[in-house]
Amino acid sequence: MEKKALLSIGDFSKITGVGIKALRYYDEAGILTPAFVDPDSGYRYYSFHQKALVDAIQFCVELGIPLKQFPDYTNADEPASWISYADLVGKGEEIVREKMKTLQERLDLLKEMRKEIHRAEESCQRNRPEKYSLPARDCWIVPYEGRQFSRESGQLTNKIILEIHRNNMRLGNTGGLLLLRQQGVWKQFLFVDVHKDSAREKKTPQVIHIPRGVYLCKKVERSGIEQVWDWSRPHVKPERIQLVIETELFVGNYRFSQPVLEQRCLLDSQ
To answer: Which of helix, strand or coil describes residue 43?
Structure first.
């Protein structure tokens, strides 16, 4: 092919919008071989028709299709002779649908976080018991009799986190104290949240599911889950309380050094 009928690598870079370094890399990777390489200068030259191949490569780059898979969509013997756009588009649709699903899940999570921030700030401002409908959660629990933010609770929390990781489960963002009534006796635990999907995929005896429900909630000034019986008594009968959670409130301006605590009583459906 006559060199004069071709585009230099610089001109080809301009019309495709792909950098010269990238074009050289595509050549080295064997997915975009120049139409002609000057044997004297080593300069690369391309035909205009190769722009379609570059567009297909960029399509893969934008969608996250590994370039090592690109030959799967071209003629194995002559990589530049044809491109299976139908297969590329099909793969692209699959990837985009998965990304859309992930983005929607993240958007739903952000909406829930914003909703919780608003509720937390409301709880702080009112500083009195209020009923709220709160989502379900899955927790890794370990028996524990002390308070939060002690040396003992910190060490035990770290052990729980490592156990969650060793069990290939996704770690949640919150933890705290939990009171459960077992065989008529209240027992206290330390808990760390685990992601609901990983909790369902791999069941372990240390993980419990706490259903969505109506909670009587109140901000407290210090850790100590036993104080729940003092502030809740004027508002609800003790037998209506199914469990108690003490955890941090995630207000709009969250301070790691001075967390705000809230105690939550899950009420029966009466």
So the answer is: coil
Residue 75 in 3-state DSSP?
coil
Phi, psi of 260 (to 5 degrees): -95, 130
Of the pLDDT bands very low, low, confident and very high (cuts 50, 70, 90), residue 201 is: low
Cα–Cα distances (Å) from 266 to 183, 208, 214, 215, 251, in that order, read 17, 15, 6, 4, 21
Cα 42 to Cα 222: distance, rounded to the nearest angstrom: 74
CA distance 75 to 79: 5
Phi, psi torsion values for 29, nearest 5 degrees:
-80, -10
pLDDT in tens, 74-100: 874 554 467 888 888 898 899 889 999
Encode pLDDT of 122-146 as tens digits: 888 887 899 999 999 999 999 999 9
Q: Is the CA virtual torsion 164, 170, 174, 177 positive or negative?
A: negative
Is the pLDDT score of 183 beyond 60?
yes
Element (H, E) at 192: strand 185-194
* Strand pairing report for 130-134 and 213-220: antiparallel
